[in-house]
Task: structure prediction
Amino acid sequence: MARIASITFALALASAVAAQNDKVRPGPWPTAAKIPPGWVVHNTKNYHVQSEVGIEKAKRLGDHMEVMNIVYRKMFKPDKDGAKQQTIKLMKDEATYHAYGGPQGSAAYYMRSAREMVCYDSGRWSDEEPAKAPTTGAETPAQRRRRQMERLLESKMDLLGTAAHEGWHQYFDWYVGSPVELPSWIDEGMGDYFYAASPLRGKDQKKGAVELGRLNFERLPIVIAARRQDALAPIDKFLLMLQNEYYANPGLYYAEGWALCQFMLHGANGKYAKLIPNYVRTIRSDSNWKVVTDKVFKGIDMAAMHQEFLAFCDTMKAGLPDPFADDEGEKPAGEGGEAGGTPTPTPQPGGAGTGTGGG
Result:
């Protein structure tokens, strides 16, 4: 009887969520009459934020996305001024998000037909200082290792990170002005690059600035494992990988896409830093991405570039502290990242969820 009662309750809850979502319409809500019960709207210069979790979180999300919009525009300069406000839906929980249409295995997604980004409050916001556990004395190495492992295995996606990832897809759609296929390595790789952008605190917080080039700790362990197993695809083949092949092994290829974008923008002493902006700019006028790839990467020794990429991946690995080392022997984290763990799971097989963002 208890099992039947629990199933009945679950079905009733799902039905209630679905009924509530019937009142939540895609796209903007331009008047108060369009706003469903339990929702609020916060407008910024470039975003129309619809929130099911109150105005304070809507403002925090809107502030972060305005900063990210500046980042997108600096990296991929538009040839038009202004923009129609882009819609963002911030839902209260994962169940409501999936009932609305959020893909399984995702924390946010961009719906091109409605030109809206949809996410949910994961409870993890990177603009909040991490809570410090109460201590009764000096933290022991064992306690510290446990704390690091708990943080590494944290399954919740950062809300601002997922929004920055999907916000990139939303910006690109506006930037090109028409449906244009962007190869997955740069489409998802740059999404994961923006996911790791961190709001600056302290004296820089009021400027609304973010730190770019931080390590993406959702992807880095897979890169390390793939490097150990020599599983990273050669760059010349990776650049031409079709979407179905990319999505067939998302755990590995999402990680490699992020690492490749990280390398191009921050590695090899800046030798390849203009490739990604040039690629995105060029594809607006020539939507044939294979032709664009040949044009942008013309004259580059791809075999040599791949070896530089592998060496760069090794430096990211070396920049991480060992969570199993004693405090005295630990070194600080490398470029732009917090201290994180170095467990190295094997690259995920096909069918694994995308994790960061939602594609």
